[in-house]
Amino acid sequence: LHGRILLGLAVGAGAGGIANALWRDSAQLLWVVDTIANPVGQIFLRLLFMVVVPLVFTSLVLGVTGLGDLTKLGRISARAFGLFLATTVAAGATGIILVNAVGPGRSLDADVRIGLMEEFSTQAGARVEAAAASGFGVQTFVNIVPRNPVDSAARGDMLGLIFFSLVFGVALSRLGEARAGPVIAVVDGIAGAVEVMIRIAMATAPVGVACLIFVVTARFGFDLLASLGLYAGVVVGGLLIHQVITLGLVARVLAGIGHMTLLRRSRALLLTAFSTSSSNATLPTTIRTARENFGVSSEVSGFVLPLGATMNMNGTALFEGVTVLFLAQA
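Now predict its structure.
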């Protein structure tokens, strides 16, 4: 699968770059992008997002009930959150050190800076206003507890869904086998059906990935990347440092797994994450990879990985740290 996804990435990027170079802004290319490539890519993304809510719910419920002992659940939670915090801090620090050392914003071409300001100032202003209105404080933590778990699931509020799933799993584990057994069997059956749906969705991955990458390269080509090359280089360099050094050490020290083994067994999920740009869309592949390629138990993977997809965004921490300082420099 990872080979086919990689081939899809290469074909989509190459075809989009050629199309942009030969027929940039042509009506025919825009028609292909809007009528064929983008809809196919979006269908692939929707197939992945479609299974996220039932996957998170069933994985967490089965994970909590499978662990059984709430003391064991507490130990795993403490280790998981400790690891999340440590790796996120390391990623953010890596990005901040690099962007201060290289200073990509100070070398940005003046014409490019003006063009970006003109094109995106309205959109950026709206996001700043929305962020200022939302705020962060005690209410942020209150909102983790959902008023209506179905509404949280419908809106994609993953923290609310996770909280409800954890509480539901803990409640089931305290009911006793006679009453909890039938409910757990139903949840397990749903989880099995979701796994089949994931396999169906991933069968379309090479075509979906090719279309997603084609849309980007056909619309923008590689000119913008060249203009922002130093900024992009700092981001990618920071990600490589974090992947190779920080996560490589974590895998070696805590799991006894070499870095090359880690990368080789994770190829499918890395390519899926790269092409979809979404931790939640990649979650089905992550859980499948953990269980099949690393032998992680269903209980641990089902409990830790949905939490990680929402709370443990190392790449986002690094990227946003670099981006904020890049913008300040520019």
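DSSP finds 17 helices and no strands in the chain.
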